[in-house]
Amino acid sequence: MSARIFAVVVVHNGASQLADTLTGLRQQTVQAPVIVVDTASTDDSAAVARAGGVNYIVRTGADTSFGAAVGDAVHAVIPDLQDDDWLWLLHDDSTPEPTALAQLLSEHDRSPSALLLGPKLIDADRPDHLDEFGLTMTTRGEKVSPAAGELDQAQFDTQSDVLAVGTAGMLVQGGLWRRLGGLDTNLAFSDDGLDLGIRARLAGARVVTVPSARVAHHRLSERSSTPAARTRRPKYRQVRWAQLYRRLSYTTGTSAVFLWLALPFIAFGRTLQHLFDKRPGLIAGEWAATVTAMFSRGRVAAHRRRIADASVAPWSAIEPLLLSAGSVNRLRADQREEALFIDTDVDDDDTVPFWRSKAPLVALALWVLNVLLLWRLIAAGEVSGGAVEPLRPDWWTSFTSLFSLQHFGAVDSGLMTDPNSALWTLLSALTFWHPSTVIVLLLLTAMPLAFASGWYLMRALSKTSWVRIVGAAVWALSPVFVQALVSGDLSPTVFHIVLPLAVGSLLAVARPGNGRERSIGRAAAAGLWLALLSASSPIGWVVLLAGILVWSVFAHRLLRSLWAVLIPSLVVWAGPVRDAVVTHDWLGLLSVGGSLPSNGSNDPLDLLLPGSAPWLWQTLIPALDGQPLVAQAVAAISAAALIVIALVGLFTHRWGRVLIGLVLFAATGALAVVLSGITSIRVFGAPSTWDTTPLLSAATLFLLVAISGTLVGARVGLAKTAAAVAICGVAVGMAAPGALAISQGGAVGAVANTAPALVQAEERNAPGGRVLEIVENSDGSFDATTTPSAFFGTLQGRHRQVISARSLDDGRQQVESTVSNLASYSGYDPTDALNQMGARFVLLRAADSTVSTDRVSSVLDANTALEPAGRSDIGQLWRVTGSTAVTDSGPSIWWLIVPQAIVLLFFLALSLPTGRLRDDAETSSALSLLEGDADDV
């Protein structure tokens, strides 16, 4: 009996391409009966098959895999399949050239041991490119198609023996098909051809490619097991499961057991790799595939038995056909080299980067100015004054306190570490041997840091080096920033430095031309910067968040990555939200991490038009002391000059950017004016208001965006003139606070130790004490709060005192009642109340220099329960007689802190630059088979 040849076409909703496939079969020089297997198509596939004159139509279920569909066709039509018969397998979108089948059969005639043959698959959309021409795998079981996506220059025509061929156009001998049991139906979506080729090799057959047999492939028929699913590439979890399934099946002896046990560790390592590759969407698929593979031992065992029953050759026979790790590295190196020539990202089109421009010289000049402004901090170890306090001297104790609740202000209110205090605790790790040094370093380098961040923002707004430098200088010399710096307002200072980095990252995410990996990495970076902003100024973060949400409606690229932008901030704010539940003060969330009360001006004009404060000019120039209008006019010069420059930009082709910047500037400034007039409770003897200084920084940034439109859109001469005026304007604006700081050293100065030595010594000898702090106000009222001795006189402690002062619980009322009685008459015995709240010391101070504490001081001196302990630079101190009160640390909250840290480290890994990333359209086709598409998350 002569050999029979059957063409088996598997179709699923492939009517659009099936007609071309059937036409190609009718035109073959060697004719064969055609069997169409319809996997429950919902389109006209069956009608197209009947119209195409096929010999047989077999119907199966929608979830039937390609291998199972071919098996059903063989069982239904060819139950007597003979050893010398042939099966020609085709997809519904693979169109063979007229001589394709004849060339495959001719190759078998020349080499009878070639029992599995594959044609040259041509990309139907790009006929001069290869879609597939032989398959191999890495030593770790990952499928690779070396020819995929390559320009067809006959460079692969000399190859003959390969490890495997794809199922599209595969010609397999009937006897081999029966011995191997056909395609593995467990590989329903990927790797079925690769697995069949490996088993054929082990069975003693040759697997060859035939370059003269050509088949055009549209790549529309790679499907998953989900009904009606059709994708160009399978999901990553499917690809990865197939790799693990085959690897477990191919591993021999006890190695398979060790491999099975190692699967979770392998998944963890690959999770880190996905993070650094900026592909977090693959992580869920990685673990889903790993868990599924670990519970697929039955299918793995069955496949191992099939391989063992059919094998006649050792595994060493296929080792020469595997792709070594070195070859994979060379493929990746070629991919990176190709990216150097095709990557058109704006970042890489920067002809004059920061270090090759004059920007470092400007940064150096600003650093010199910075040191002059704060010359009193040179060689300082700790600082105080204005809104600055030292950090806790023991960094490790501060760090471990993050993992437990602390009682501040009220006995029954255990509070988490607020984001701002946590930020400073983490930053102090940079100088862990002396934590407060990090504050000194920040204050002495704030201007060049602000210049660098401003330059990063300007890089997204202009490609011209001098425009970037001018914009960055305007940002670093902003009077709002200078005032915050010389007055020691750390939160606004940090906000001003970080804000351009966050906005610049968001602009990079929204910019056209970003690939998926690049967008996710930049979005993660923007999310971390926004988390820092939220820790520095919640109200500033809320305003930015509202703008981002509105922006994402119009910027779809930003909308796709919005999850990475928002999650870090939401994670950071899990603690404050928990504290708001305890203190019943939800509105107080907007005050978390804000500036501590300090002397300054809240002049509405200064808020709306961020120029130097008139009171500073009046202090510097006595002649202006009685001329408030003149001082106001001088103060507004810088802002007025900048606004005029921005208005000029409305007449350039960049008017859109200018208009948006001016509108946002006006809206943010108006919001700052409104919020500056809202006063809540008193804290430390001063009215507690929302800190609107960061809003002024945001207003300045929006004004800078408008100015950049003028500098970019105007003619060169006009633009340079505007730049000179802008520099002069900010120079005038910062002249008053700058000159005052140089002459007087600013509000911040070096101190040896702020907290009373007795409190620190007591805490070292017997940890767990507290200090009851009483502040007498000008109207005779008192503010009171309790602070753990370990936090007393530190930045972390004062921030938490601000939070606890807003508490509305019974514990706070008890503290206020005790203080009222203690300060009213000397016969009151406060021992029980003080022991209950854990207080070992009582500190009395005035709200300001105009308040006298003599009366209250005499009352406390006369109280036998209190022992005078002297005065310090903070206030007058008493020790509670015989007090041994010890307040234990609150319960551990590691279960909340550890997940927060993991999530933030996750985004940190995503944001780290790990080399050049290629857009999706540019990914190497050969290497893409190792990955698949990201799972939906």
Salient structural properties:
937 residues; alpha+beta; 9-stranded mixed β-sheet; 5-stranded mixed β-sheet; 37 helices; 22 strands; 12% strand
Descriptive overview:
The chain is α+β, with helices and mostly antiparallel strands. 51% of the residues lie in helices and 12% in strands. The strands form six sheets. Strands 1, 2, 3, 4, 5, 6, 7, 10 and 11 form a nine-stranded mixed β-sheet that branches. A hairpin with a 6-residue loop joins strand 6 (114-123) and strand 7 (130-132). The longest helix is centred in the last third of the chain and has 29 residues, at 716-744.
Task: Tell me the layout of helices and strands.
Blueprint: E1 5-11, H1 15-26, E2 34-39, H2 45-51, E3 56-60, H3 66-77, E4 86-91, E5 94-96, H4 100-110, E6 114-123, E7 130-132, E8 136-137, E9 143-144, E10 171-173, H5 174-180, H6 192-202, E11 206-217, H7 236-250, H8 255-276, H9 281-294, H10 297-310, H11 325-342, H12 359-373, E12 382-384, H13 395-401, E13 406-407, E14 414-415, H14 419-427, H15 437-461, H16 465-476, H17 479-486, H18 490-510, H19 516-536, H20 538-554, H21 556-560, H22 562-572, H23 574-583, H24 604-608, H25 614-620, H26 628-635, H27 637-648, H28 655-676, E15 679-683, E16 686-689, H29 693-713, H30 716-744, E17 749-751, H31 757-765, E18 770-776, E19 782-788, H32 795-805, H33 810-822, H34 831-836, E20 839-846, H35 854-862, E21 866-871, E22 876-880, H36 894-911, H37 925-928
Parallel strand pairs: 1-2, 1-4, 2-3, 6-11, 18-20
Antiparallel strand pairs: 4-10, 5-11, 6-7, 6-10, 8-9, 12-17, 13-14, 15-16, 18-19, 20-22, 21-22
Helix pairs in contact: 1-2, 7-9, 7-10, 8-9, 12-15, 14-19, 14-32, 15-16, 15-18, 16-29, 16-30, 17-30, 18-19, 18-29, 19-20, 19-22, 19-36, 22-36, 25-26, 25-30, 27-29, 27-30, 28-29, 29-30
